[in-house]
Amino acid sequence: MSEGKKRVVVIGSGPAGLTAALYTARAQLPTTVITGPLLGGQIATTHEVENYPGFPDGTTGPELVEAMRAQAERFGTEFVYDSVARAQLTEGLPFRIETQGGETHEADAVIVTIGANPRALGIPGEAEYVGHGVSYCATCDGFFFRGKDVVVVGGGDSALQEALFLTRFANRVDIIHRRDELRASVALQTRAMAHEKIHFIWDTVVDEIRANGSGAVHEILTRNLKSGEQQERPVDGVFIFIGYDPNSDVFEGQLATDEAGYVLIDQRYRSNIEGVFAAGEIHDQIFRQAITAAGDGCAAALTAIDWLDSDDFPGAG
Ligand code: NAP
User: Fold this and answer.
1) Which of 16, 53, 70, 294 registers the highest number of CB atoms within 10 A of its CB?
2) Which residues are catalytic?
3) Whose CA is nearest to atom 13 of ligand 1?
4) What is the pLDDT of residues 281-301, one digit of tens each?
């Protein structure tokens, strides 16, 4: 890294992180991205991406990630293919980020874009058939279920909102909920219950997801929690919305979060710690799109650049 320049470390390499790095590196700030376990994050596991602007014929998650990585690298971004083990953010500058591999990276500004993971049911067939009928994103995959029968697991706002979205494509959407009372808002409940394509299966969990000979989901095994009765149900797709876990544990006690662990930021993407910014799903539990994360990354980077340049930066002027 060039000496004397203020350094930026971006934690996370999804669309938010790669966009933030593009902006800070292009602003001539030495920038390091600590990628996390998977370069690109969740979008890297999405087969087809049809709603990222600029690709009239669509693209794939891996292609989109590679294009973003190459663009950030073109302006000098360095990539560390490792995960953060510890961060020292509260003892003044420079911030210190230690990776699991034992490297320490110092920074004058940190942009946290470490994302959130959809919760998994942890049942047989779930992990095996992701992308072959199991999905955690209706906006990403709903289009591939035109005229098909799908189930949605969950009873919160996400489950109902995504079930309503899926009615645009699917022939039938069954919502499987483990209780007989929904957690979702009354407005969403009213809309879902009134929809002719949506049906509810109460007090029920999914025990197993099964695929046919060609590896595509074709059946689930459900269990009624009150009667204990198990039932095989033919389905083409299983959409799971049982909540998300933001990856903020590594910053516990330093970054302020809400009760669920989402990092709290102000309108300019500033966290409670001066010089530390956050973007993407680590703070956003509403939109969760690659394009909104990328926009967030840009905004956080612009604030970081301003801050490093301003009289507020310790030692400035
Ligand atoms: P959530 O509110 O935590 O709901 C998760 C749902 O999944 C609950 O119904 C829960 O059942 C069920 N569940 C959890 N673990 C399960 C398991 N192992 N097996 C079966 N079911 C399980 O999560 P969310 O719907 O993602 O919403 C998260 C936050 O984002 C909420 O604050 C929500 O209001 C907000 N959000 C808002 C909007 C909107 O404004 N339109 C859209 C999406 C999300 P129980 O009910 O029995 O616990």
Assistant:
1) 16
2) 137, 140-141
3) 242
4) 999 988 989 999 999 999 999
